[in-house]
Design a protein that fits this description.
single chain, Ribosomal Protein L25, Chain P, RNA Polymerase Alpha Subunit, Chain A, domain 2, 2 domains, six-stranded mixed β-barrel, four-stranded mixed beta sheet, 4 helices
Length: 219
């Protein structure tokens, strides 16, 4: 099950670029919570607190009990925006959820074990599908889907339909999508030393009319 953590937040009235700069000087970042039955609300959260939450999580599928000025709201971290160069957290989207309502989200996929086709036959394990779309109740939400690939031989694959999911979790991705496959190793053919390139057919150029007349005169 995904981790459930507590996080404090405060309503945010000011919006715009200047207000965002002012927030960061105070050690907080902008956020928004939406979904369920309420209108979207602008928030501000402590930069260090949200960074600590994300640092200790396997993925970004984290159930958060937001304490918004004394009002608790259960939410799911929906999106985290990072600075493209520094990696700083710029903005966080929270999706409000209810414990008795089905979630539609996606979770990362990870392999474990040494594939037989890799270990014994030199194949290459290809990870084709990085995340899985699922539906479940919040209490059943997994942080990550781990897949045992140890039995995979050469040219064998695991599809979405083959995944063994935790209780209460249903995959909504296409069942025929390939998740993992063991491909045959690529063999490079080295050129043979001293071998000449094959010659193409000899091309006989057609003589121009003037050249043909000159040769006939010589004869």
């Amino acid at each position: 099950m995904a981790k459930q953590v507590k996080l404090s937040a405060r309503p945010r009235a000011d919006v715009g670029r200047n207000s965002v700069k002012h927030l960061r000087t105070r050690g907080v970042i902008p956020a928004v919570i939406y979904g369920h039955k309420d209108q979207p609300s602008n928030l501000e959260i402590n930069t260090r607190e949200i960074a600590a939450v994300l640092k200790h999580a396997i993925g970004e599928n984290i159930l958060v009990e937001l304490d918004i000025a004394g009002t608790p709201k259960l939410s799911l971290i929906q999106e985290v925006q990072h600075h493209p160069v520094r990696g700083d957290i710029l903005h966080v989207d929270f999706l409000e959820v209810a414990m008795d309502e089905v979630l539609h989200t996606e979770v990362p996929i990870e392999s474990f074990g040494d594939a037989d086709g890799v270990k014994n036959y030199g194949g290459l394990l290809e990870h084709s599908l990085r995340s899985l779309h699922i539906e479940c109740l919040p209490k059943d939400l997994p942080e990550i889907i781990r897949v045992d690939v140890s039995a995979l031989g050469l040219n064998q694959s695991i599809h979405v339909r083959d995944l063994v999911l935790p209780a209460g979790v249903k995959a909504t991705s296409d069942a025929d999508l390939t998740v993992f496959i063991v491909a045959e190793p690529k063999v490079e053919v080295e050129p043979v030393a001293g071998a000449e390139a094959p010659k193409g057919p000899e091309v006989i150029k057609e003589k121009k009319p003037a050249e043909g007349a000159a040769e006939a005169a010589k004869k």
